Amino acid sequence: MKAQHPAINFAQTAQITYPVVETFHSFQGEGAWMGASAFFIRLGGCDVHCWFCDTKESWDAGKHPHQSIKMLAAEASAANPAITVITGGEPLMHDLYPLTTVLHQQKLRVHLETSGAHPFSGKFDWVTLSPKKFKPPHSSAYEHVDELKVVVADKSDLIWAELQIDRLPADTLSYLQPEWNSPASQALIFDYVKQHPKWRFGLQTHKFMGVR
To answer: Which of 171, 176, 110, 121 is nearest to 144 (CA)?
Structure first.
């Protein structure tokens, strides 16, 4: 938990709503927490618009129903996961302090998956930053990062990856992940990681298994 926030009225906070694309219980398919039981809260709204995004339906927040924090926390608690992951879309388009406060009240471990493109908000036990060249992270994101994940389609993404890792502590877990529809990127990353041991090869194991 890395950020502080003014005192919150918990009763009022529980009634705050967010646009929710979906919630589901699965496992974390990638990164350091790969294989852990995970309850995902996918929030609507994104202005990063990655061309390779596999959840483009999340971009328009207005297309998705709002759910209260109280309802989301109850769903997550009932799932009894090892981790609760807030993702998107781009979740930092929303103020995440109220949501993370109530999730922590339920004794849940709360993770964030973000491009970092908006000012940082919320209290998290783990933050995965996946920065994008076409909408770089807000400066407030870097101090909160536990894990760096850079999607690679071509060599220019490796240059971008090095610029990002230079902004983080040397012990930050750092992954290069092949873009799913660019098979050549796998070989590119394989060769690069062999020559640059600070990086790890990242895979989306849930896609190989055919689950969310």
So the answer is: 121
| Residue 29 amino acid letter | G
Residue 139 predicted with pLDDT over 70: yes
Segment 175-191 shows an average pLDDT of 91
Which tens digit of pLDDT belongs to each residue from 65-75?
999 999 999 99
Measured CA to CA, the distance from residue 23 to residue 68 in angstroms comes to 13
2 domain-assigned: no
Q: Is 3 inside any structural domain?
A: no
User: Is residue 4 in some structural domain?
Assistant: no
In a domain, 159, yes or no: yes
Residue type, 28: Q
Q: Which residues of 102-140 are buried (b: 16+ CB within 10 A; e: fewer)?
A: bbbeeebbbbbbbbbbbebbbbbbbbbbbbbeebbbeee
Amino acid at 106: Q
Is residue 171 predicted with pLDDT exceeding 80?
A: yes
Task: Compute the CA torsion angle 19, 21, 25, 30 (nearest 10 deg).
Answer: -110
Percent of the chain with pLDDT over 90: 78
